[in-house]
Write a structure and sequence with these properties.
Strand order of the largest sheet: 4-1-5
Number of helices: 1
Structural class: alpha+beta
Distance between the termini: 5 Å
Radius of gyration: 11 Å
Number of domains: 1
Number of strands: 5
Largest sheet: 3 strands, antiparallel
Order of helices and strands: EEEEHE
Shape: flat
Length: 57
């Protein structure tokens, strides 16, 4: 298994086993640091951005 970090905006919803995560998917990343760097490049003041860690096979 491998962890993937998903960066979300605020316009859609992704359903996962432990709940719903709001937001348009803005990218998939191999590390939290890369996802966070992209979030800051998009807009440092956009407080609705979220990063979700998921495991894939």
């Amino acid at each position: 298994m491998k962890n993937v970090y998903v960066l979300f905006g605020k316009n859609s919803t992704l359903e996962v086993e432990d709940g719903k995560y709001g937001g348009e998917v803005l990218g998939y990343f191999s590390s939290y640091e890369k996802a966070n760097a992209k979030a800051q490049k998009i807009n440092e003041e956009w407080l609705e951005l979220k990063i979700l860690e998921v495991s894939v096979e």
